[in-house]
Design brief:
The complex is a heterodimer of chains A (14) and B (255). By secondary structure, chain A is mostly loops. At the A-B interface, loops of A face loops of B.
């Protein structure tokens, strides 16, 4: 089964 | 100081219902333009962003930017003490550790007043890049709620595929599989319309429990937009006259 990505993989600090 | 007067407590109640399962504590960032909240769930898979425009309040005053650190469980309790149609005023002094809420009954002389403790919250705000999405699906929010609730009975994940044919939601469970295809409708003025704008075919997999959570916002707004590009977080957007609630959900990766 596939894994769940984290938003940290896509969104950086402001 | 902050003084924000809302026409109806119901709006705040619905907002709280739409975020309290995802987030326990959050900063309500108040400034002269309105109130913003951005928070991630504990596992950093989902993010919720709320904006309430100053112009949407009956009266709004915020002299300087201030964060109000709120425990959402406590706020939910205090809001339960309001009738849905009570005129509701939120007040906080500069540097205050208390949020004052006043509920005025629309048709009687009842005035109720509550003070709720505020807290210091270290929130790690994220920068959300401006994204050109490859597909945008607009549909009745009740239909979205229905699809994700139905499929969540079967499996943990849903694959969302957008093509010229329409948008397909598919879930595979141990005992049963299911898929729902929603075709684009002809009359996009109709409130029941399903509109699909697409630059390229997208196919992404998401955890259903988050989508079920997001879909609670249907009480705020009759329409929902799903914005997708391959391999980036899904944006689920509800725009309701006075502001918006947007959810971002990180995808699951392949088998």
């Amino acid at each position: 089964k596939g894994g769940q990505k984290s938003l940290a993989n896509f969104f950086g600090p402001p | 100081m902050l003084e924000a007067k809302l026409a109806e407590a119901g709006t705040l109640k619905k907002l709280l219902d739409a975020i309290k399962e995802l987030v326990t504590d959050a900063n309500f960032e108040c400034n002269e333009e309105g109130i913003n909240l951005q928070a991630m769930d504990n596992s950093h898979v989902a993010l919720v962003a709320v904006h309430l425009e100053a112009a949407g309040f009956k009266r709004y005053r915020c002299d300087r930017p201030m964060p109000l650190g709120v425990n959402l469980t406590s706020l939910t309790k205090v809001l339960k003490c309001a009738k849905d149609d009570d005129i509701t005023t939120l007040k906080a002094a500069d540097e205050a550790d208390v949020l004052n809420l006043v509920y005025e009954a629309k048709n009687s002389d009842r005035i109720a007043e509550y003070d709720m403790k505020l807290m210091d919250i270290d929130s790690d705000t994220l920068g959300i890049p401006d994204t050109e999405y490859d597909a945008r699906v607009t549909m009745p929010s009740a239909e979205f709620t229905r699809v994700v609730r139905d499929l969540s009975q079967l499996g943990e994940s849903v694959r969302i595929e957008v093509s010229k044919e329409g948008v397909r939601f598919a879930s595979e469970g141990e005992a049963a599989n299911g898929s729902v295809l929603m075709k684009q409708t002809d009359d996009d003025e109709d409130t029941q319309a399903i509109t699909i704008e697409m630059n390229q075919h997208v196919s992404l997999t998401f955890s259903l429990k988050y989508l079920v959570n997001f879909s609670k916002s249907a009480s705020l707004c009759p329409r929902v937009q799903l914005m997708m590009s391959n391999d980036v977080p899904l944006l689920v957007a509800y725009d309701f006259g006075q502001g918006y609630i947007r959810y971002y959900l990180a995808p699951k990766i392949g088998d």
